[in-house]
Amino acid sequence: MLLANSSPNEIVILASSLFVGAGVGLFSYASKPYYLRGIDYLEADFSDKFRRLQISTSKLRLGLILWSIGLLVIFLVFTLLLGSLIFGFLSTLLLFSGPWWYLRRKAQIRRDQIEDQLADAMVSLSSAIRAGVSLPQAVEMLADNSPQPIKSEFGYIMTDYEMGKPLDRALQEAKERLRSENFALFAAAILASRDSGGRLNETVDRIAHSVRELQRLERKVQSDTAMARKSAIYMAIAPFIILAAYYFLDSGAVSNLFSTTIGQMLLAASIVLNIIAYLWARHILNPDI
């Protein structure tokens, strides 16, 4: 009865809506396994960085699902409402990569801070062992007296030890969590000394001396490349400043970059290449020693 009273245009619109809805439903059902597989991969990757930052992962999966829904909404807003598939894809890509890069950067900064504090911690550990303190007690002293963030790492080790986990296992898990070469060397020396019964304080002193030499070289490299790193930041910002300045000279040409398909493609490509160039420059100017 409803269809009999409807005009042909209304029937076409209703049929189109049904077909679109059915298509979206079938696509969602068919892509569900791939979506869940992607969520599993992101959860594993983010969980690793969260553990390195000592952040709880209890609500991580829910956050990733909400994040993916938000990315889909942003993509649809740019594509359907603003009529720009290119900007929709670019904004979704940037918002997808942003949190991952931020977490990776935070984990790297924390690892660098721990490596800077590790030499002093090893000297304190060696002094405590030389004074007759047992290894668990020496680690507990570091957990109480060391600065952050290495204090929390030793505190995490002692918490595992007090909960019944062997100290060797707690150190091994800390080494896997931090992924620091200097901490791995420190943990390996402790584990080898416990197995062979060697003089741990002398071994730790030698490792501390080596770590300080590496830190001296790293600081020298950082000092020599400081101006180049600033130049990389200025070069990354310069295209946006030039674009804003050129708008006052020829606003029509700049508007074409946002309103035409060719302009949007050129603008999106320039943004992506600018980001790649900046990250590449940072990678070149931060060599591993």
Per DSSP, the total helix count is: 11
Share in helix: over 70%
Provide the low-confidence segments as ranges: none
Overall pLDDT score: 79
Helix-strand pattern:
HHHHHHHHHHH
How many angstroms separate the termini? 79 Å
Q: Biggest β-sheet: count, sense, barrel?
A: none
**What is the number of strand segments?**
0
**Structural class of the helix and strand makeup?**
mainly alpha
Strand percentage lies at under 5%
Radius of gyration, Cα only, in angstroms?
28 Å
Molecular shape: elongated
Summarize it.
The chain is mostly helical and 289 residues long.
How are the elements arranged and paired?
Blueprint: H1 8-52, H2 60-81, H3 85-130, H4 135-145, H5 150-162, H6 167-178, H7 181-196, H8 200-224, H9 226-249, H10 251-259, H11 261-284
Helix pairs in contact: 1-2, 1-3, 2-3, 3-4, 3-8, 4-5, 5-6, 6-7, 7-8, 9-10, 9-11, 10-11
Task: Tell me about this structure.
- Helices cover 85% and strands 0% of the residues.
- By secondary structure, it is mainly α.
- It has helices at residues 8-52, 60-81, 85-130, 135-145, 150-162, 167-178, 181-196, 200-224, 226-249, 251-259, 261-284.
- The chain starts with 7 loop residues before the first helix and ends in a 5-residue tail after the last helix.
- It contains 11 helices and no strands.
- The protein is elongated.
- The model has no long low-confidence stretch (mean pLDDT 79).
- The relative contact order is 0.06.
- Among the domains are: 8-105, no CATH class; 225-284.
